[in-house]
Amino acid sequence: MAGKSSACKVRNVDINPCIEESDGSQKCLDAYNYEKSMCSAYFMRYKNCRKYWHGVMLQRRRDGVKPDMPTAEEREQIITALGGKPY
């Protein structure tokens, strides 16, 4: 059952800020018959997304802001204020 709970967290937009990038990577792999070399740009985008939001989460934790990860709505406001995704 632990696996099921973990899968739900991965698909929860308030917990996982990189669902769009993850889905893009998966679709690329599906399209290119799992030829990873064809999808490196998608992998890099996902990696940069995770790195960016991990940094945000750590800073919020240091600042005592709860929840550690901004909600999907808050992230949308942050991205809009930045003029687009910084990754």
From TrEMBL:
Highest taxon of the lineage: Eukaryota
InterPro entries, sorted: COX23 (IPR051040), Cys_alpha_HP_mot_SF (IPR009069)
Alphabetized UniProt keyword annotations: Disulfide bond, Mitochondrion
Entry similarity comment: Belongs to the CHCHD7 family.
Gene Ontology biological-process annotations: mitochondrial respiratory chain complex assembly
Region forming the signal peptide: none
Localization per Swiss-Prot or TrEMBL: Mitochondrion intermembrane space
GO annotation, cellular component aspect: mitochondrial intermembrane space
Protein's name according to its UniProt entry: Coiled-coil-helix-coiled-coil-helix domain-containing protein 7
Keyword Transmembrane helix: no
